[in-house]
Design brief:
Blueprint (H helix, E strand, L loop, with lengths): L2 H33 L14 H5 L5 E6 L5 E4 L6 E3 L5 E2 L12 E4 L9 E6 H35 L8 H26 L5 H24 L3 H24 L7 H23 L5 H23 L10 H89 L5 H24 L4 H18 L3 E6 L10 H22 L3 E8 L4 E8 L6 H4 L9 H10 L3 E6 L5 E8 H8 L1
Parallel strand pairs: 7-8
Antiparallel strand pairs: 1-4, 1-6, 2-3, 2-5, 8-9, 9-11, 10-11
């Protein structure tokens, strides 16, 4: 069951690599065929072109293909002329120079074996020189510029990708490709030093080592293989250094070193391909295919490209620009895929968020419903307790006293009135719960004023609280109503008062002061503390004040009336409300 996916991944990777190779070499063949200059220079090749050159009536010039430096050209019947690489030089007739043979002598180093001299009309020579300049120099400058710029860009962007090892190695590889191209083409002229060959070939093998590290990074970084690649470079560089110190020529060992290093590198690429076939990661295989194209182009130039009878474009010169476009295409492809994945992830996230919102909404609605049920049940239980402790308790005691014939008709009326008052307090507290305290007390005054008028007592109410006034919850408001009801009942029973004042004002430390006073006979609070009935009078009022988190003050004296001052902290009231 595991072999089939591996074979599929291996075949897919091989198909990608062969396809990329086919595209590159097809493009290379088309470019070489399309960029070849029109016509041929074989008619003007020396020495066969001497007869044709003698009959030439127009402006004549000479050109030598494959020069590495200046050379002196001698042609019988013409003055000697200095030729330069990729440049056509004009010829001047000299009838006295007839006894010499034609010759081409390089002035700096021995002429390469592939150097070919041409002489003829100026236009074909100039076109051929421009073509060679484009192939040998302009294309190299394009490679140098593009590779170094891309490598530098990758190194500069390292912090963005958290100093990716693969990105750093790839950047160094691109820079080394550009440096190697410059040293190979222009280094000998720009750096005419004895140690230049060591610099040139050392850079080349360092570039191949960096290519091996890049392959290692693309597949799956393995430190042992990385150290092995660095060890191979050290061995090769030691061989080059020993050759340089011994004074031997590099021409004998460099071809063998090239063959060995390229074989090892290509073999390592095949091993990496087989390893990647287990999982077949598409992006890594495509980039590896691009690297193998570059290596194949170098091998083609070193071993398969014949001596330049014409002006063929080297594959290793064309490979870097094309591989650069391949890498850019790969980056664009990955960017497009990343955008698609990001869009799909965003859509999926939006869907999940919507589902989560709907779930949270359902949960919130269910929670609010349960909270309402709990609140309703709690309010029901509270009402039952209030009715049992308030109206129920009064009616129960009243019923027992009536059965025992212990009450007179006025006492029965008073008990029934107390039960009715408590029931009205409960209804008023429920109706005015969480309303501003000034409005709740105004409702209490309207409810009590009729009863007090029948008893000959006037009830005055005033409020000086700022608007909006604080509010109390139902339980505290009911306790306040009962406290005031108890205070008014005591006034009716004991004080012989003609006037009761109810006031609400702002106290110290943010408290609310509820003041109930009368003009009755008054009493001594200290002597009343131990009197009979204290449990149903002052003690009840103090208990209700404590339930509200407040404190009750009693001021009275014989003949001076009574004043009850209840202080309720606003913070306590607001906290209870919340």
């Amino acid at each position: 069951m595991r072999i089939v996916p591996r074979l599929r991944g291996w075949r897919r990777a091989l198909a990608i690599i062969l396809g990329v190779q086919l595209l590159f070499w097809g493009a290379y063949a088309l470019i070489v065929a399309g960029l070849q200059p029109a016509g041929t220079l074989e008619l003007y090749r020396l020495p066969a072109a001497r007869a044709l050159l003698a009959s030439e009536q127009g402006q004549s010039s000479a050109f030598a293909a494959g020069l590495s430096g200046p050379a002196l050209l001698r042609i019988p019947g013409w003055q000697p002329v200095i030729l330069y690489p990729a440049r056509a030089s004009l010829l001047t007739r000299d009838e006295t120079a007839t006894g010499i043979e034609w010759s081409l002598t390089c002035l700096e180093n021995p002429c390469p074996k592939a150097v070919t001299a041409y002489a003829g009309p100026f236009d074909p020579m100039d076109q051929a020189a421009d073509w060679e300049k484009f192939l040998r120099f302009d294309m190299v400058w394009l490679v140098v510029a593009t590779e170094i710029m891309m490598g530098a860009a990758l190194l500069v962007l390292l912090p963005v990708n958290r100093f990716s090892r693969l990105q750093g190695i790839t950047g160094l590889l691109l820079i080394l490709v550009g440096v190697d191209a410059w040293l190979t083409t222009f280094g000998a002229l720009s750096l005419p030093y004895g140690w230049f060959p060591l610099l040139r070939y050392g850079t080349e093998y360092l570039m191949l080592t960096m290519a091996a590290l890049a392959v290692n990074g693309f597949v799956d970084w393995r430190p042992r293989e990385a150290w092995a690649a660095c060890g191979c470079f050290i061995v090769v560089f030691t061989i080059l250094l020993g050759t340089m110190i011994a004074g031997a020529s590099f021409a004998a060992i460099v071809p063998w070193l090239d063959a060995i290093t390229l074989t090892l590198l290509l073999g390592y690429g095949v091993v990496a391909l087989l390893r990647m076939g287990r999982t077949a990661p598409g992006p890594a295989i495509r980039v590896l295919a691009i690297l193998l194209v570059a290596l194949a182009s170098i091998a083609f130039d070193l071993f398969l490209l014949p001596p330049p009878t014409g002006f063929a474009l080297q594959a290793s010169v064309l490979a870097p620009p094309l591989t650069m476009f391949g890498i850019l295409f790969e980056i664009a492809l990955q960017g497009h895929r990343l955008n698609q994945e990001a869009e799909e992830a965003r859509s999926d996230l939006e869907r999940q968020v919507l589902e989560q919102d709907a779930s949270l909404l359902r949960s919130s609605q269910l929670l609010r419903h349960q909270e309402r049920l709990i609140a309703i049940d709690a309010e029901r239980q509270r009402l039952l307790r209030d009715m049992h402790d308030g109206v129920g308790g009064v009616l129960t005691h009243l019923l027992l006293d009536v059965r025992e014939n212990r009450l007179t008709a006025p006492e029965i009326e008073q008990g029934l009135q107390s039960a009715v008052d408590d029931l009205r307090n409960m209804a008023s507290a429920i109706d005015a719960g969480n309303e501003p305290i000034d409005e709740a007390l105004a409702m209490f005054r309207e409810r009590m004023v009729g009863r007090l008028v029948r008893s000959g007592i006037a009830l005055d109410y005033r409020c000086t609280l700022p608007i909006p006034a604080p509010s109390l919850d139902v339980r505290r408001l009911l306790s306040l109503y009962r406290l005031l009801q108890e205070g008014i009942a005591n006034t009716l029973r004991h004080a012989s008062a003609t006037r009761i004042d109810l006031a609400v004002e702002q106290g110290d430390d943010g408290a609310i002061l509820v003041i109930l006073s009368d003009d009755g006979t008054g009493f001594e609070p200290d002597s009343a503390a131990g009197a009979a009935g204290e449990g149903r009078g002052l003690a009840n009022m103090r208990h209700r004040a404590a339930q509200m988190g407040g404190r009750l003050g009693i001021e009275s004296a014989a003949g001076l009336g009574t004043q009850l001052t209840l202080a309720i902290p606003i913070a306590f009231a607001a906290g209870r409300k919340a």
